[in-house]
Design brief:
- The chain is mainly α and 179 residues long.
- The protein contains ten helices and no strands.
Length: 179
């Protein structure tokens, strides 16, 4: 007389490995984009930059690559990697010249130039934004940075002209009124 027992104690290594590989293959560009945006909004800029860079490299035809390029450059700016961010913004402008993110890139470049004390270039960048079809909100932020530049230069009357360009409902209005 024989007794047969069948027991299963769990999944074996090969099955676990196969599942892991299948899950890695399932990461779509949209999922990768969502992960990157979540990291960005959680102010985890290094992880966001890595994810955006991976997305840009692995999926060069992704339909939101202009947003990917902008958020990647913005992550670098938030990491205070100014030179790399400036180059990334410039690359975005050349590769996606018709994108609405070009205006955000122009403002990002202006912020970096302002922080680096390159006030002549800040003024040049202000003219680029002012003469473009940028949304009013971006133009008003540019006016704020230009006004702050004039304060640093001790050109207070010119600063007032720039600060007067900012509408009372804009986020920079309060700061402009106290500069």
């Amino acid at each position: 007389q024989s007794v047969y027992v069948i027991a299963q104690f769990g999944t074996h290594r090969e099955e676990l490995y196969a599942r892991k590989m299948a899950n890695l293959a399932r990461i779509s560009p949209s999922n990768l984009y969502n992960q990157a945006m979540l990291a960005y909004h959680n102010e985890n800029y290094w992880d966001a930059y890595i994810l955006f860079s991976r997305l840009y490299a692995q999926y060069p035809d992704f339909f939101k690559n202009d947003a990917v390029a902008y958020n990647s450059a913005s992550s670098l700016e938030n990491l205070d990697m100014r030179k790399s961010a400036l180059q990334s913004y410039a690359d975005l402008k050349s590769r996606f010249s018709k994108s609405s993110f070009v205006y955000d890139a122009d403002l990002g470049m202006m912020r970096i130039l302002y922080r680096d004390g390159m006030y002549h270039d800040v003024e040049r960048q202000f003219r680029v934004i002012r003469d473009s079809d940028a949304p009013e909100g971006i133009k008003q932020y540019a006016a704020y940075y230009m006004g702050e530049t004039e304060v640093i230069r001790m050109e207070y009357l010119r600063a007032l002209v720039y600060f007067a360009m900012i509408n009372s409902g804009h986020e920079a209005y309060v700061f402009a009124q106290h500069s």
